Structure to design on (287 residues):
């Protein structure tokens, strides 16, 4: 019998390159399997923040309610919108933007802030992504109380399409995961990225229809204003905002927003997998 050539036998686990698709997918799979760990850490983050507070995480809901009420009273007068329409519109925008913006801002420091755990705990790097994402989901759930209160005070005619808010939020969360992974990895290597990210998020807040109504400007009798309002479609944050705000407010569903979000999801996760494959092993050296 001929001896088996080293070129013919499968590589041993230790011989697999760190830049391996197998290890990249294994990192995600192992992180998803350790749900109790990242879920517990995410909940502890919130408890730690409000450790000595009397009402605890309820401050999240109160803070959102005060902000929405104050800005709603102001901007409903500035834009000439009925308070019963503009306040729920602004509330949903703020709640969803809080989730999106925090995923980007906190995501830029997701590995930097977990330096101790990364160096001491042999765990997949995706665990820290899921921990941050779960924390933001909990924040979103607290803020969602404001929406239900406003829905009771200012009833909106809702239909079965309100159920689309569930897959819409799931799609936003899936995109939040790849954003955290990509931005967090880049920021760990280049420490100037977090301040840049925060500036971009702040700028995009004003360019996204949160406090101002996109449909109001698009239907403006002045054709120049109506035409310029369409430029808001270039903003990817707007599409993610609309896929969940439209069903939550009982507005007609514009399906092109879903198509844009679906395309961004595919491209974004392709980029995230490349980043995870090439740089996953370097994160512990960069922090």
């Amino acid at each position: 019998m001929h001896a088996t050539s080293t070129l013919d036998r499968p590589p041993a686990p230790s011989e697999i390159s760190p830049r391996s698709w197998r290890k990249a997918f294994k990192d995600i799979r192992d992180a998803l399997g350790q749900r109790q760990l990242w879920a517990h850490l995410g909940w502890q983050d919130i408890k730690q923040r409000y450790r000595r507070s009397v009402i605890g995480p309820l401050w999240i809901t109160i803070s959102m309610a005060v902000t929405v009420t104050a800005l709603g009273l102001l901007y409903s007068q500035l834009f000439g919108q009925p308070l019963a329409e503009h306040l729920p519109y602004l509330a949903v925008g703020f709640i969803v933007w809080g989730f999106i913006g925090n995923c980007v801002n906190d995501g830029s420091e997701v590995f930097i802030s977990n330096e101790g755990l990364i160096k001491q705990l042999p765990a997949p790097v995706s665990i820290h992504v899921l921990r941050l994402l779960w924390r933001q989901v909990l924040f979103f759930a607290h803020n969602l109380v404001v929406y239900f209160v406003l829905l009771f005070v200012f009833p909106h005619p809702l239909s079965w399409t309100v159920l689309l808010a569930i897959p819409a939020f799931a799609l936003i969360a899936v995109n939040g995961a790849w954003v955290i992974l990509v931005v967090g990895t880049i920021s760990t290597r280049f420490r100037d990225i977090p301040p840049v990210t925060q500036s971009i998020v702040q700028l995009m807040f004003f360019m996204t229809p949160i406090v101002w109504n996109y449909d109001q400007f698009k239907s403006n009798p002045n054709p120049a204003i109506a035409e310029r309002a369409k430029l808001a479609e270039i903003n990817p944050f707007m599409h993610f905002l609309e896929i969940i705000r439209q069903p939550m407010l009982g507005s007609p569903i514009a399906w092109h927003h879903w198509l844009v979000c679906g395309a961004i999801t595919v491209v974004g996760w392709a980029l995230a997998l490349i980043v995870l494959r090439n740089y996953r092993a370097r994160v512990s050296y960069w922090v």
User: Anything to note?
Assistant: The two ends are 51 Å apart (CA to CA).
